[in-house]
Amino acid sequence: MKYPLAISSWDETEGNAISQVIGSGQYTMGSMVYQFEKEFAAKMGSRHCVMVNSGSSANLLMIAALFYRKEDPLRPGEEAVVPAVSWPTTYYPLHQYGLKIKFVDVDLETMNYDLEALGRAVSRRTRLVVAVNLLGNPNDFDVLGRIASDAGAILLEDNCESLGAEFRNKKAGTFGLLGSFSFFFSHHMCTMEGGMVCTDDEELYHILLCLRAHGWTRNLPKVNRVSGTKSDYEFEESYKFILPGYNVRPLEIEAAAGIEQLRKLDLFLEWRLKNAVLFKELFGKHPFLGIQKEIGTSSWFGFSFVIRRGCGIRRDRIIGLLKKNEVECRPIVAGNFTKNPVIHYFNHEIAGELKNADWIDQNGFFVGNHHYDIAQNLHWLSKVLKEV
Fold first, then answer.
1. How are beta strands 166-167 and 170-171 bridged, if at all?
2. How far apart are CA 105 and CA 205, in angstroms?
3. What is the mean pLDDT of the chain?
4. What phi, psi does 91 have (nearest 5°)?
5. Is residue 1 assigned to a domain?
6. Which of 330, 346, 329 is nearest to 338 (CA)?
7. Is the pTM of this model over 0.85?
8. What is residue 266's predicted lDDT score, i.e. its pLDDT?
9. Active-site positions?
């Protein structure tokens, strides 16, 4: 492809780090994972981080942890508010833990919550508001945080697409009680597969440690907020199961790669922001395509387009032309997720209309952004789109 959607951000440093892990003989979760968690927490300004095997698992553990805290835990049937445009694993854990999912429309420009629609949808029945920072773009947490707080609802963040984004000089993924991150191949930094949960809450941190590995107490501190004080008799304590957990542990080689990637993250983000400047110059006043409106400082996961209403242009015509000219593209995340057949399994409600989510679903697409200079790619894209 002349303009690919995603490309590797690795060089020999990640390979060398992985080789050292292989040479050590310690492959499963160990010292590299703990080092990466510590360094990632410092980078994000978070007290605690727990690495898992994917961003999807990070979302799963965030929801699960709230069911096992001692005071005011979540319960099946309670209401969780979500934006209608996101990736499936924003929603699946909510369904899997028996929550009622309320879908809210998004803003056509920011592609995050339509904040007026959110304000109407949230009520005293709402226990959970899930903020999804879409395609690198943070939400307006001044407004969103106030809406959740006024309703007495828990705020969580799915920040899997927006590593490095900031709102008022605070990292996206650290505004909620818990926040998730993904290190999949196409994301801002890559550990092959891998994810992280950040939180400042010590009890939730200990619950996450327990749930990550079988629900046993082995990985908990001696004195902890889940089991109390652990026995010194390691033979029995190492096989004491206290919560119905999972095995979503990461590998040492993933963490080793993550440590190297984290050291490069600032440069990766710098190039993404430089590319975004040119993108906005080329397409900010496009006659028939709208681009994503930045909130705070986006980390620009990709560059999205939405066909303007009333212009008479069909998306399939654009997609065909891009494919012909070797520009790789895809729908905006999963479009309006309520259009998918899987929704029939959910206990759900749609708050009002989803007009913007529907329009994005039928008329949106995005192209890649990368960790290096893509000026040539963007100029090529501009040339191709002039043929429409």
1. antiparallel
2. 32
3. 97
4. -95, -35
5. no
6. 346
7. yes
8. 98
9. 187
